[in-house]
Amino acid sequence: MPVVLQLIDAHKRYGGQALLDGASCALADDQKVGLIGRNGAGKSTLCRMLLGEEELDKGEVVRGRNLRLGYVRQYDPFKDNETVRDFLMRDSGQPDWRCGEVAWQFQFPDAMLDRPVRELSGGWQTRTKLAALLLQDPNMLILDEPTNFLDLRTQMLLEWFLRDFRAGCLIVSHDREFLKRTCSHTLELSRGQLTMYPGNVDAYLANLEERREHDRRVNATTLTKRRQLETFIAKNRAKASTASQAKSKAKQLERLQMIHIEGPESTVRFRFPDIEPRQGPAARTQHLAIGYPDHTVARDVHVEIDHGTRVGVVGDNGQGKTTFLRTICGSLPPISGEFTWGYGCQVGVYAQHVYTTLPEAKTVLEYLEYHAAPLTTTQQIKDVAGSLLFSGELIEKRIRVLSGGERARLVLAGLLLQKHNVLVLDEPGNHLDVESVEALAEALCGYEGAVVFTSHDRHFMHRVATHVIEVRAGRVASYPGSYDEYVYRVQSEIDSGLRAPHGTATSPSLPTNGEQVVDRKARARADRDAQKKLKAVERKIVRLDEEKRGVSERLLAVTESAEAQRLHTQLADLTAELAELEEEWLELSAELESA
Q1: Which residue spans within 419-474 are E strands per DSSP?
Q2: Which strands form 475-478's sheet, in the order they lie side by side?
Q3: The pLDDT value given to residue 430
Q4: Strand bridging mode 295-301 / 281-292
Q5: Were 162 and a residue from 19, 52, 182, 468 both cysteine, which residue would form a disulfide, CB within 3.0 to 4.6 Å?
Q6: For strand 58-63 and strand 3-14, is the pairing parallel, antiparallel, or unpaired?
Q7: What mean pLDDT value characterizes the chain?
Q8: Which helix (H) or strand (E) holds 339?
Q9: Domains, the chain
Q10: Is-contact 71 64, C-beta < 8 A?
Q11: CA nearest neighbour of 284 among 304, 255, 311, 314
Q12: Pick from 61, 51, 23, 49: nearest CA to 187
């Protein structure tokens, strides 16, 4: 388990805040680590420092000699009119067949490989970047919020890739389900310190209070022992016969140290106003068509939303989830048909674009006073602001200096100060940390009004959704099953799609009881040997491919017939050898896949 990336005694300050205060950690080449911490704790800054994009104030980043660091670029690396295939070949230097093989892992249709990347949706562009990352053959990945705005299908493909990735990862994500499925260790950044915990994020959150309670018990025992020693020393240090014993006890007392227990950090508390529960339909559609003047997204939409239900809107990116939400909010007129809210429905809206439309010059308090319901007192406003961590001087901060997470909490605070009996929420968990997302889910589960929402966070959807509406292939319809059943269907589609090209006609027979005992060490050894062979073949293919390219270029420039004949022969030999190596690579890949 060699360490390939290490942070030693790291210090980093921004203004008056110490993001890192003597922090240290070590990342091994076979650990998949989830980095968690509150918004503003410094997770993204830490990633930039590990990547060498930002300097420490003090301390050291130690990179192993064999480190090959990979990361998903947040900027657009594509050229105008560059196809997916062209970008993968340019970015990686790998041959066409290898780029196609890796693109297949992210379920690229053959036709899409020859489409310009910039014409694709954000989700497909992210898949392109992930395929390019895999082609670089890194042995350590640093991924900062890789699931932001990815649909469920692309998230699952990314999980598939990370589970099969045979090297180390450091992943920053607020998506608890994603971290649970991909990471075996949890690295906490809190109060300037880094602490590595064995186990995934669920185990970390479940045991956090248990560890604090253990430390409290140890401290209680230590305190009792200290008092006993102090009493003994006080009684015996003046007596000549017991002075040496008292001196020995004093040394014991010096060695007894209390464990420093950090109090829990301030936690977001959501509480939606109490409303009068209602029964029956809150909204219904009649022959509804949604979309834009030049493009109809879905036709003949027939859905009904009841009071007291929490409806999760699901579907791949680009299918029309946000278009549907905008239509039912009234910010986008229907193409045809009707969507009608029931009598007395008071609709509160949280939209993805809220962060860019807030009044920059206003303070937090001024914004909340403007959005609060009539007759709301200043103290009530301050209570709600404090529950979302805007207390003391923070309530006078200008919106222009707020982070993305703070802006998200501010808009949610505005909703809490109004008495809505229907909430429409478009990605409410974006920019919130793990604890805040959990607090929001808990509050929504206790809310007695209707909720219509969309989210890419599976844990949040699982906790909140009681009903599901699916947007797919020009249709918007109530899904017949639960959200978990929808996830299972998407996972099955992905699994069958990825396994189909390597499937076999016959199924292996089930092992007998005696055969179930497998020599795991031998299997792991064989797997490593196959990996080494595969890498060796890949390196040889790349070398011969470059040699073939050089021969082809010389052949175009040669004028002497004898030299041309020699180069033709050399080119034919290289082509034949490459064909054999590619066949060998496919066989080795199939063996590893079946293993």
Answers
A1: 422-426, 450-454, 467-472
A2: 347-350, 422-426, 450-454, 310-314, 467-472, 475-478
A3: 75
A4: antiparallel
A5: 182
A6: antiparallel
A7: 82
A8: strand 336-341
A9: 3-203 (3.40.50.300), 281-494 (3.40.50.300)
A10: no
A11: 304
A12: 23
What three-state secondary structure class fits 173? coil
- Which residues on adjacent β-strands are paired with residue 468? 312
C-alpha span between 154 and 432 (Å, rounded): 21
Q: Identify the band that residue 531 occupies on the pLDDT scale cut at 50, 70 and 90.
A: low
In sequence order, what DSSP letters do the residues of 12-39 get, joined into one string? EEETTEEEEEEEEEEEETT-EEEEE--T
Instruction: Write phi, then psi, for 11 (nearest 5 degrees).
Output: -125, 135
Checking if the pLDDT of 248 tops 90, the result is no
Residue 467 is predicted with a pLDDT of: 94
Does position 512 have pLDDT exceeding 80, yes or no? no
Residue 593: pLDDT over 60: no
Tokens matching residue 204: 């970390």
- pTM reported for the whole predicted model: 0.65
Q: What is the mean pLDDT of residues 317-321?
A: 84
Contact 441, 470 (CB under 8 A): no
Q: Where are the beta strands (DSSP E) in 108-162?
A: 140-144
Contact 258, 222 (CB under 8 A): yes
pLDDT in tens, 184-201: 999 998 888 899 988 888
- Under 8 Å between Cβ of 175 and 457: yes
Please report the pLDDT score of residue 506 as a whole number. 31
Show the tokens assigned to 37. Answer: 């911490």
Q: Which runs of E-coded beta strand occur in 402-442?
A: 422-426
Chain centroid to Cα 307, Å, comes to: 32
pLDDT higher than threshold 80 for residue 40: no
Residue type, 146: P
Provide the percentage of residues in the chain whose pLDDT is more than 90. 22
Q: What is the pLDDT of residue 503?
A: 33
pLDDT of residue 519: 47
Q: Which of residues 526 and 70 earns the better pLDDT score? A: 70
Please name the residues in contact with 390: beta carbons below 8 A apart, sequence gap of 6 or more: 364, 397, 406, 409, 410, 413
- What torsion, rounded to 10 degrees, do the Cα atoms 498, 503, 508, 513 define? -10
Residues sharing a CB contact under 8 Å with residue 521, sequence separation 6 or more, in sequence order: none
Distance CA 12, CA 192 (A): 9
| Amino acid at position 213, single letter | E
Eight-state DSSP code of residue 363: B
DSSP string, 76-107: --PPTT-BHHHHHHHHH---HHHHHHHHHHTT
Measured CA distances, 509 to 322, 515, 519 (Å): 47, 11, 19
Q: Distance between CA atoms of 109 and 124, rounded to whole angstroms?
A: 11
* b/e map 254-288, b = 16+ CB within 10 Å: eeeeeeeeeeeeeebbbebeeeeebeebbbbbeeb
Q: Among 16-20, 413-417, 495-499, whose mean pLDDT is lowest?
A: 495-499
Q: pLDDT digits over 558-572, tens only? A: 767 777 778 778 877
- Answer for the pair 263, 438: CB distance below 8 angstroms, yes or no: no
Q: Who's near 463: CB < 8 A, 6+ residues apart?
A: 438, 441, 442, 445
Please enumerate in sequence order all residues whose Cβ is within 8 A of that of 43, keeping only pairs 6 or more positions apart, or say none: 35, 36, 37, 144, 172, 189
